[in-house]
């Protein structure tokens, strides 16, 4: 039975398509895609501060120059919880076709701040002991520590806000003669009051009855357990493999990767960036840069290895032409021409290496990092960064990571080679059958 006609495969593809269309997961994917440039900028700022500037400048001059990178880190990484809450509110409202998505983003930000503690413990510069400070919002509650809270609060606050805003009795209409912006703001005036007042009640009860706040509660009870499971080596292998399996049915792997796995991996890399900037021990080996740099060589399925294998042993004219056309975008990890032109979709001949090679890259890089043969990834690089450069940048200039990446690349080519030969034979038989069919019909 072919992969395309398998009932189980069709059911899996149908389920995956529905999962990818789920509005909250789609909104989550859209939000992280929107905010991605800021994370890349944060990684670049940290990379320059801790490597390039440290090579060039010394002493007081170095500190003065590094102030530039610190400002960028504060404007991106250290307010990432607030940023993701706003983007989720906006994207979810857009996907719900709500007519005032800006108001939804506004409510998401305000709701998240409402759930933060009014008194925090901070260590003043030069001091050793922490002191309690009131009426401040530290980066610890605005940045990476609040990202998961921002996701949850953004989703919940936006859903409630949209539902309440659709109650006509709660809408305040000022007539047709007022500016549109003023009219829209009064339309959602009462819903905003209701939603934020409700979140304030919850925050007050948590503080007065349990002595805690939602940020710490979500981090302790939900974020850390989920992240440790999802971004463990086995969790990543399972989720990333499922994502790549979707390509075999013509469904983009972002259905699982971008919606479920990538947000957790992004939290990991933001923690690494913050730790690297502060000169602390890097906490997470598995992160978004590690997965993309070592498990995405040429795109999903590490198809750059497939293209090179095709040049080396391929005999089929069609696939060799596809490889020639796909090599340029493949260098930048864009592989839709390979997915649909080679093709990968519904091609059982290439299913095994397409799934196996990315897993091999993730495992090898993980083991190499654990053994100290390469540094962990501490910056976020664009997923379009070519092989060799991506590993170097992701690890803040560790040449050993480039060696590991090139080793994975060579091994990936070797894994693909026998399957390219098998695929050529299958295509040859299919071509022979196609040529024989008209003759049989005439007879």
List keywords for this structure.
transmembrane; two-stranded antiparallel sheet; 2 strands; 443 residues; 2 domains; disordered C terminus; transmembrane helix; mainly alpha; 19 helices; globular; transport; PTS_IIC_cello
How many H/I helical runs?
19
Number of strands: 2
> Which structural class should the secondary elements be placed in?
mainly alpha
How many whole angstroms does the radius of gyration measure?
A: 26 Å
Gross geometry: globular
- Whole-number count of domains: 2
Q: Give the helices and strands as they follow along the chain.
A: HHHHHEEHHHHHHHHHHHHHH
Roughly what is the average pLDDT, rounded to an integer?
87
**β-strand amount:** under 5%
| Uncertain ranges | 439-443
How do the strands of the widest beta sheet line up side by side? Answer: 1-2
Give a quick account of the main beta sheet: strands, pairing sense, barrel closure.
2 strands, antiparallel
What does this structure look like?
70% of the residues lie in helices and 2% in strands. With 443 residues, it is mostly helical. It has two domains: 155 residues, no CATH class; 168 residues, no CATH class. Strand 1 and strand 2 form a beta hairpin. Helix 14 crosses helix 19. The longest helix is centred in the last third of the chain and has 44 residues. The protein is globular. The two termini are 28 Å apart. The C terminus is likely disordered. Its main location: membrane. GO terms for molecular function: protein-N(PI)-phosphohistidine-sugar phosphotransferase activity. It comes from Companilactobacillus kimchiensis.
